[in-house]
Design a protein that fits this description.
Blueprint lengths: L5 E5 L7 H7 L4 E6 L4 E7 L2 E4 L5 E2 L8
Antiparallel strand pairs: 1-2, 2-3, 3-4, 4-5
């Protein structure tokens, strides 16, 4: 996208982070990483994506996970 490469990484439910907790509780959690910058730029939970730091969300509303 936009000349940049991104990797979609499914959340490991064994991790102690809030994303791991959501995955353990049955949610589908995918994080998106900018390959060149080697940093996570967004997360999607059950199809609703949010960019880190931008306050933007995309997708369908599936409940609050903030």
């Amino acid at each position: 996208m936009g000349g940049r490469q991104y990797a979609a990484i499914e959340q490991n439910p064994g991790k102690p982070s809030r994303w791991g907790q959501l995955a353990r509780s049955g949610h589908q959690v995918v994080q998106f990483k900018d390959v060149q910058a080697n940093r996570f730029v967004a997360v999607a939970v059950d199809g609703e994506a949010k960019e880190y730091g931008g306050g933007k969300s995309r997708g369908t509303e599936s409940g609050s996970w903030d």
